[in-house]
Amino acid sequence: MALPVVDFSPWHNTHDEPSRRRVANELVDACQKVGFVRIINHSLPESTLDEAFTWMQRLFALSEKEKMQAPHPPGWAVHRGYSWPGLEKVSQFMSTGDDEENRKKLREIPDVKEVYDIGSEQNPSQPNQWLPESTLLGFQPFMTQFYTTLDILGKEILRALALGLNLEDEEYLARKHSGQDNQLRLLHYLPVPAADLENERVSRCAAHTDWSSITMLFQDGCGGLEVEDVSRPGNFVPAPPVKNSIIMNVGDLLQRWSNDRLRSTNHRVGLPPLSDRIEGPDRVTRERYSIPYFMSPDDEAVIECIPSCMSEDQPAKYEPITRREYNRMRASMMY
Question: What is the pLDDT of residues 47-57, one digit of tens each?
Answer without folding.
Answer: 999 999 999 99
